[in-house]
Sequence to fold (224 residues):
Amino acid sequence: AQTVTQSQPEMSVQEAETVTLSCTYDTSESNYYLFWYKQPPSRQMILVIRQEAYKQQNATENRFSVNFQKAAKSFSLKISDSQLGDTAMYFCAFVSGTYKYIFGTGTRLKVLA
Amino acid sequence: NAGVTQTPKFQVLKTGQSMTLQCAQDMNHNSMYWYRQDPGMGLRLIYYSASEGTTDKGEVPNGYNVSRLNKREFSLRLESAAPSQTSVYFCASSEFGSPLHFGNGTRLTVT
Fold:
């Protein structure tokens, strides 16, 4: 079975600092996609970043970047220059040819002023 | 520019009652999904429909049924609600490999 593991239930970071959220996954497939989603208290699910497994280059979106290690099945999210608005739950997700989008259990990130 | 629309936003049921959660998307996506979100458990897939005319079980399908009514609509039915089904339910749609687009969620309480 395909699984996604986020081993950090909670993290905190000082405003303007950098934080890295961990995600590992398990699959036997070679073609798949990975995502990070942000869920603020409003409960809305917001896409942060997307990575295609066949692309070796790590995806970046402004202050958000990933470290994609395909051999290690690791997909961590780095948030630079953290802002108070980054306070949220962050979910890692995976999809392969089964069409099932599988999510991790989430990391609650708190940015401290 | 509606995206994915879920109804209702809130619902309270008594044990044993039935209800249907409605979901519609206007992005012409082929695939649609139902998730439940519980504290500490992340989002767990209940059922999905990879394309119109197909439905498949996800991680936690027991106690639920679904209907892919057409390409736009995908409903989730609770035939006999149980307290364990108290949760926040999300509908989502996508094309394969693209990000999921989520509805705003339904908070369901079963007493």
Summary: Chain B touches chain A at residues 31, 33, 35, 40-45, 48, 50, 58-59, 88, 90, 92, 94, 96-100, 102, 104-105 (CB under 8 Å). The radius of gyration of chain B is 13 Å. The longest strand of chain B covers residues 31-38. The CA atoms of residues 3 and 75 of chain B lie 16 Å apart.
